[in-house]
Design goal:
Strand order of the largest sheet: 3-2-1-4-5-6-11
CATH architecture of one domain: 3-Layer(aba) Sandwich
Shape: globular
Number of helices: 11
Radius of gyration: 18 Å
Number of strands: 13
Helix content: 40-55%
């Protein structure tokens, strides 16, 4: 029975990933400091005998050495997310995402971990007009968050060259689903819009709403993580998306349809650091990992809405 460490396990991707690993008969260790995660995301996990949790900061080298001991796979999901937050507070983002990643990877290589899979971001591509985004394109990070994710993946891939540690970096494209935090100034668009519209409140769109995103349901990201860890490919970055794109205006239309509402969005000024369009070329992930999105956009919305309705 393999053992996996999931950093950022109280986050929405981390907790969903831990659930899936437990379903695959993994022993799962989780670590989080609750800086951005939510304790309620651990409720279901805490009842499972193969799951253990330690509250710790990923920059704590001693704690990371302890939790990586006798681990087969590390899934590094912990980060301070959000482009706008990083623009407001670049120091916190850089410290957690860069120093934290280095600490986790160093502990993993010292513990002879087999594979480390790290969470990167589509934001590393920047706002280039070329679509879809393909991994061979030059990275152009345009915010402290994007720059920290560029560092995260480059350091991970470098570890596969320098040490006996297999690595993969997954460039997430707008992952959404149950357990994603709908509150706060920096909340992601889908949970925020669902929560507002369930309360019959108009969502706020920053810009004209024609900006587009490759919205990707969380189960697809979970699948990519497991394929990357259990596969034979190392030292590579992969797009994790749906392979399509939806404008923010179309998102509002879809939610109005599914929620049986008729709410017109409020338009506000664009936010600094936000890219205009995001669309993944997933052919590399398909060919090398065997990745195939299992849940499409509208089905993902249908699965997500009940969580926030509750």
């Amino acid at each position: 029975m393999p053992t996996a460490l999931v950093t950022g396990v109280s986050g929405f991707i981390g907790s969903n990933l831990a659930d899936a690993l437990l379903d695959r008969d993994y022993n799962v260790r989780g670590v989080d400091n609750f800086a951005t995660g939510r304790e309620q995301n651990l409720n279901a996990l805490q009842n499972r005998t193969a799951f253990t949790f330690r509250e710790a900061d990923i920059r704590d080298a001693d704690a990371m050495a302890t939790v990586t001991d006798d681990v087969d796979y590390v899934f590094h999901q912990a980060a301070v997310p959000s482009v706008p937050r990083s623009v407001e507070d670049p120091v916190t983002t850089t410290g957690a995402n860069c120093t934290g990643t280095a600490t986790v990877l160093n502990a993993a290589r010292k513990a002879d971990v087999d594979t480390a899979v790290v969470a990167s971001s589509s934001s590393v591509y920047g706002s280039t007009d070329r679509l879809p985004k393909v991994e061979s394109m030059e990275s152009q990070p345009e915010s402290p968050y994007a720059l920290s994710k560029y560092y995260t993946e480059k350091l991970a891939l470098q570890f596969s060259d320098l040490y006996d540690l297999d690595t993969a970096a997954l460039r997430y494209f707008n992952i959404f689903g149950p357990r994603q935090d709908p509150n706060g100034e920096y909340a992601a668009v889908i949970p925020k819009f669902i929560s507002l519209m369930l309360e019959d409140e108009r969502p706020v769109i920053y810009g004209d709403g024609n900006q587009s995103r490759d919205f990707t349901y969380v189960d697809n990201a979970v699948q990519a993580n497991i394929l990357a860890a259990e596969g034979d490919v190392t030292g590579e970055a992969f797009n994790v998306g749906s392979g399509g794109r939806v404008t923010i205006n179309e998102l509002v239309d879809a939610l109005n349809h599914l929620l049986d509402t008729d709410l017109d969005p409020i338009h506000s000024d664009p936010r600094p650091g936000d890219v205009r369009h995001s669309h993944a070329d997933i052919s590399k992930s398909e060919n090398l990992l065997g990745y195939e999105p299992q849940v499409e956009f509208e089905e993902g919305l249908e699965r997500t809405i009940p969580y926030y309705n509750d």
